[in-house]
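Appendix B, record 7
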Amino acid sequence: MKIFGRDVGDGYPVFIIAEIGQNHQGSMEVAKEMIVRAKEIGVDCIKFQKSCLPAKFTRKALERSYTGENSWGRTYGEHKTHLEFSLSDYRALQKFCSDIGILFSASAMDPISLEHLTELQLPFIKIGSGDADNIPLLRKAAVTDIPLVISTGMQSWDQVQHIYSIFKNKPIALLHCVSAYPTPPSESLLKLIPLYKRYFPDIVIGYSGHELGLQLTLASVLLGARIVERHFTLDKDWKGTDHKASLDPAEFGRLVGYIRCVENLRVNHENIINLLSKTLNETDYNRDELLLALKQVSASDRKLLGSEVACHSKLGKSLVFMRDVLEGQSLTAADVGVKVSEPHGLAPIWFDRVLGLKVVHTCRQDEPIQEGDVAMRFSSDLY
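Structure tokens (predicted):
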């Protein structure tokens, strides 16, 4: 695939993304300082996360109390509002990046944000793991003319294959990802990367890491990842849940250096540990953790992992009613959306199956669609 005219994939340099996300603390000045530091350490691109809060969350999800040590408000909605930049802010950050010579991109966290990011004509748009089962959003993204990078955390192998089927004939990259902050080495499943490359040989495969340290990300490159994404922070002690699993400038700088040293090497998978023992400094190398991360895996191992349950419980999305629906009415695509809801409802992968079904009682806008709302029994075997 090409990203802003640059070839990305096998035979080309690894494309390195510093994920600022919402580690900017809601401050444009902090965001600009982070961009400058990322440019200095040699990353290819910085990335934010764009949300339209009413399009991403139900009212109840936004209204729930959120008063912990990492909160920026009394409710989750107030917290997220503090951290959300406007579209005009994004335009300013995009120009700032252009002026200093670093690529700017963002994740689209809902359909409205996808439209906004498409307007900006970004070099690529990211679809995060939380939307990798969001069928209507994936289909909306598939008809844009912008390359896509899609993380696959929390997804089953069947869903990963379904994502691939949606985007045939479109330039995309699939990133192996485990949505645990931080990811334990025993559940990092790095050997899925060569499996992805074998099953999906015509697209770019990469890695989005949330583990502590650098060595697993470097191992992902030796296993074939050609896009690497890690969260970036200026201070791991800042308020916010992502900082602890992020890399500070010194760590990210070492990671960039390591990647550039090994990205052109062709290494037998059994020799990765030996090579990393010689490449990494003593503080960045841990043989026991590498052995856990490099254990053999199969396609059936890509499923919702125990370490991902907390993220899925907090930010996993559900089918919701987009308007009031009366008893006996058949559901249309206009009636059904996907949001983070309180409580959870049917998983987004059931989107197609609920269309045409009759609701068994009157249901209200912005409520999650539960199994008892429609005249059908659901099983876990979808594809």
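Remarks on this record: The first helix runs from residue 28 to 41. The domain at 317-373 is CATH 3.90.1210.10 (Type Iii Antifreeze Protein Isoform Hplc 12).
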